[in-house]
Amino acid sequence: MLNDTREFVRDCWYVAGWDYEFGTSKPEQRELLGEAIVLFRKQDGTLAALEDRCVHRHAPLSLGKIEGDHIRCWYHGLRFTSDGKCVEIPGQDTIPPGACVRAYPVVERGGWAWVWMGEAVDANPDLIPPAIGFDNPNWVLKSGQLDYDAPQAYINDNLLDLSHLAYVHANSFGATTGWISRQPKTSVIDRGVRVERWVRDAPPLPPLPSLAKYNSIDMWASYDFLIPGVFLMYTSLHPPGTAEASDHGAPTGKPLFNNFTCQAVTPITHDRSRYFFSWGPGSEFGGEEIAQQMLDVAAMAFGEDKVMIEAQMKIIARDPARQIMPIAADKTVILFQRMMDKMRRPARLSPRAAA
Prior knowledge:
This protein is of the alpha+beta class and about 350 residues long. The protein contains 6 helices and 18 strands. It has 2 domains: about 15-125, Rieske [2Fe-2S] iron-sulphur domain (Rieske Iron-sulfur Protein, 3-layer Sandwich), CATH 2.102.10; about 140-340, Naphthalene 1,2-dioxygenase Alpha Subunit, Chain A, domain 1.
């Protein structure tokens, strides 16, 4: 656990920002995995992503201007295409063949702009996690984000093990010890893990008229946590006794209320991360007002996480070599960390193959 490796996983898609953050009027800089990237929209509305460093004096292209499908450096006027090739150097007819900057594959999907940080030839859009965007008619979602002075791995670990809700989020989410009294079902899925659990005797939140007659409810929570750090969780509320009637498996009846959240953790540097989140009710159970209430509670809860994780970071930094003690709730953390570690290490030849 808390495996703060110094090597990033690169062969995957990272969230660079919300799709609505990138307009046509000016380029935007984002830092991912310690690399400065400039994103801008072309005339057809699609995004381009380039290394944010002009080849001439290394000025940031994000301080430049968008010109059609190109971006012009505003230091000495070099102009680059959306695939990184320099096509104009003011006052100079000959353009050196090496006058280009790195171009990153970028795809907009599920409300986010995703950037592939590995070799461009390996970029496969099918590997983008299936986040739900704001245009999905089944959900009413609101969004937010939060910066951490902590490595991505620490925030991933926090999301992989939700038993902390009973303590860290007792005030914000009204979470009870039901989050830890029974271990969840954990499954390995393609490029991630799936966690399913019932929380019995949970408080009937949010305070809706349809829940007013219940002193407590049964809550079903199922989430996928996918490489490199994407959390997709469905939650539904049911009358007391539903968990037992379902033999603690997935519910079959119509819920009293449901909601969905998409969250992603992107490393800015080794020690800083950006946390993106959206949350809201199913469209048949609530609209913009309920979604905003839920997001306000979530923002409070994620602030509680930030305090704990950044404090944890300072303690670990005093003695990084000191080992922690795993407990039963760490199963999903260990499984996911092994997946990430496998992607960090280059494939090794067997002794026979090497010979």
